[in-house]
Task: inverse folding
């Protein structure tokens, strides 16, 4: 009985041990069979003892679990990591298939050839076209042709060669693949080389925080493996793949090349241009119903439609068209009232508020004018009953004369000033896209049917109280702000030549220039510099300071242009020659607040030249605006703008230079900061007051002056009139 019991215990114990052993073996087998993936091996040739590396993923790290053969000859396993197995080619081996075994699994690796030629190491393993690659190995010095190098099948230029080292240049579009060396009909392949290239970046402009997508090849899958810089400043990589990276432009980004560095190998891409955030100038309409087209005008938009986004009260609205200065979209309706926002390449700006309603103003024509100007308002939601629509010009009501659901017509009321234009209809209010400007042309004095002035009027000046002074050859008239004309000094016929005195007792020979000083004294160039007090007392100041047109500068000095001699300055210390240059002495020179001098060099040259403040005698004025030998009419940058010949007056005001382009019947404005020329007014010949698109001037606009409020006065010789141009 004891024997039976003992045998049963032994049997049970054995069974438990077998079960435990089986369980342990099953667990061990599961742990020791990872998902092994073989990617590549190198070199694929060499001598006995050559180290062969097999790369991949999921390898077991127990070297004892591996066996390998070359053409059925055992191969020594040197080391094992999760990503690489290293073997040593056996002695007395033969060329043939290389096989790797791990436990019960077998892998066919590829062919291994016993030969002298062997590619053993490639450095670096990545890079752009034109970069250099070092190829280490043996047997590169053949007896026939020099060693040839191929990268993923594309032949590379060998720069230097020895038996154990080749230096090759990466060819264009090399792609990713093994580096192969061919010598004397033998070949050997080594590690894979990854070709790096940037094919495009989008967008190519923006600023801080702009998300830039880089397309190309050879990028690292892990974001940290790609180092991206904008003109040297590192950027954050937020998305990575072998053919695409998404990065964020860094703080302090500057215009310059975008560079991607991988394992210290740099690839240079296109230039990323830093631009200011977008600027919204006008939104039209500022209110309206579904289906109406909205136009957003401004600066810094992208010509690529997809790079612009527009939001109405936080609702993104698709664009129908886009350019650098204009975006168009269709109002979707249902957005509610809220801010208009434009985002260009992740740079955003907020504009005015938009009202989601039926009543809206699309355009106002003209956008400026004086009392009595006929105005047409195009929009939506108007009443066809004129009296049910009320229009306000900066708070001043105007009477609508005709009305439809989309059009209102009316005249500008008395007392108009620059400000907001709005339409009120049955409790709803619509605001015009732009301020309505009290601007246009008014005849201050004279006219084609008036005998107040003769056609000999030529020079003009204005004092601090907006009194205007105009000269004919021998007389100076004073025009009060309300248009009253009196004779300040001189005789209409000028008999008796030059003579000091008071009022009409004084005599002038031929007045060629006129200016007003800071004390409202009037000075004329009449064979010398002569002074006229506000009371009309005339005295001769200098007989040495002679010339043509006259300017009083912000430095308290007088400047004149003297025909074929140059620019001269006068003060209490005497006369100083500023520049020796032939120039048009009938064109008034301008002096800006920094002391820079602007001149027209010749009556038959169509440009404005520039003498910097502080220039020494002998400085030759440089061309600033227009092409001196190519007259024309064209707005644009200083480099591209065209002016006509026979410029007659230049006037500086703050950061602007006004140019009297009489041949074009135009006044041009040169922005001295933005370096851009625009048109203030251009007309046809004739005589008419009104809005800028209605006014007309005669030929012979001989001079102009500007008052403290920025309004311009022009001598209109052909119409024997002094015209006032309201700009504000």
Result:
């Amino acid at each position: 009985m004891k024997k039976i019991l003992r045998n049963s215990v032994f049997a049970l114990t054995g069974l438990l041990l077998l079960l435990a052993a089986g369980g342990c073996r099953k667990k061990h087998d599961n742990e020791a069979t990872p998902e092994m993936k073989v990617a590549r091996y190198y070199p694929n040739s060499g001598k006995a003892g050559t180290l062969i590396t097999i790369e991949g993923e999921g390898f077991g790290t127990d070297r004892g679990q591996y066996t390998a053969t070359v053409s059925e000859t055992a191969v020594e396993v040197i080391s094992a990591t999760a990503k690489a197995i290293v073997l040593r080619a056996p002695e007395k081996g033969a060329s043939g298939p290389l096989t790797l075994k791990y436990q019960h699994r077998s892998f066919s690796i590829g062919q291994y050839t016993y030969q002298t030629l062997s590619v053993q190491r490639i450095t670096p393993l990545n890079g752009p076209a034109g970069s250099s690659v070092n190829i280490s190995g043996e047997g590169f010095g053949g007896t026939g042709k020099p060693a040839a190098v191929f990268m993923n099948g594309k032949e590379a230029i060998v720069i230097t060669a020895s038996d154990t080292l080749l230096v090759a240049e990466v060819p264009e579009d090399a792609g990713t693949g093994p580096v192969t060396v061919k010598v004397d009909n033998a070949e050997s392949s080594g590690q894979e080389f990854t070709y790096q290239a940037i094919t495009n970046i989008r967008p190519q402009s923006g600023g801080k925080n702009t998300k830039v997508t880089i397309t190309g090849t050879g990028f690292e899958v892990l974001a940290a493996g790609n180092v991206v810089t904008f003109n040297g400043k590192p950027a954050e990589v937020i998305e990575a793949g072998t053919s695409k990276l998404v990065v964020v432009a860094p703080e302090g980004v500057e215009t310059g090349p975008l560079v991607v560095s991988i394992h210290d190998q740099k690839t240079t891409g296109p230039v990323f241009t830093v631009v200011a955030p977008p600027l919204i100038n006008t939104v039209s309409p500022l209110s309206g119903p579904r289906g109406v087209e909205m136009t957003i005008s401004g600066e810094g938009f992208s010509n690529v439609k997809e790079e612009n986004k527009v939001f109405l009260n936080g609702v993104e609205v698709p664009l129908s068209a886009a350019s650098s200065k204009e975006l168009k979209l269709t109002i979707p309706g249902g957005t509610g009232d809220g801010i208009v926002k434009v985002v260009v390449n992740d740079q955003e700006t907020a504009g005015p508020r938009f009202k989601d309603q039926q009543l809206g103003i699309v355009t106002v024509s003209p956008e400026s004018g004086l009392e009595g100007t006929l105005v047409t308002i195009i929009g939506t939601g108007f009443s066809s009953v004129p009296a049910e629509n009320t229009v306000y010009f900066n708070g001043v009501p105007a009477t609508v004369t005709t009305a439809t659901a989309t059009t209102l017509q009316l005249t500008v009321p008395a007392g108009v000033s620059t400000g907001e234009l709005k339409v009120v209809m049955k409790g709803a209010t619509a605001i015009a896209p732009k301020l309505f400007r009290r601007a246009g042309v008014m005849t201050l004095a004279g006219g084609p049917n008036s005998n107040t002035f003769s056609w000999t009027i030529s020079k003009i000046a204005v004092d601090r109280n907006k009194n205007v002074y105009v000269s004919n050859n021998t007389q100076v008239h004073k025009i009060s702000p309300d248009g009253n004309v009196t004779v300040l000094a001189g005789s209409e016929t000028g008999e008796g030549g030059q003579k000091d005195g008071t009022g009409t007792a004084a005599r002038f020979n031929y007045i060629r220039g006129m200016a007003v000083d800071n004390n409202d004294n009037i000075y004329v160039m009449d064979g010398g510099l002569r002074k006229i007090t506000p009371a009309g007392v005339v005295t001769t100041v200098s007989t040495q300071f002679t010339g043509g047109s006259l300017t009083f500068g912000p430095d308290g000095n007088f400047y004149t242009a003297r025909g074929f001699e140059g620019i001269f300055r006068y003060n209490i210390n005497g006369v100083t020659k500023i520049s020796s240059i032939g120039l048009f002495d009938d064109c008034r020179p301008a002096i800006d607040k920094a002391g820079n001098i602007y001149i027209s060099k010749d009556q038959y040259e169509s440009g404005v030249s520039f003498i910097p403040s502080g220039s020494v005698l002998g400085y030759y004025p440089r061309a600033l605006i227009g092409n001196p030998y190519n007259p024309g009419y064209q707005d644009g940058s200083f480099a591209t703008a065209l002016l006509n010949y026979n410029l007659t007056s230049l006037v500086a005001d703050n950061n602007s230079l006004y140019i009297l382009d009489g041949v074009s019947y135009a006044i041009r404005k040169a922005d001295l900061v933005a370096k851009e020329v625009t048109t203030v007014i251009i007309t046809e010949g004739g005589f008419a007051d009104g809005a800028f698109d209605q006014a007309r001037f005669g030929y012979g606009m001989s001079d102009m002056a500007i008052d403290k409020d920025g309004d311009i006065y022009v001598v209109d010789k052909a119409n024997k009139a002094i015209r006032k141009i309201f700009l504000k």
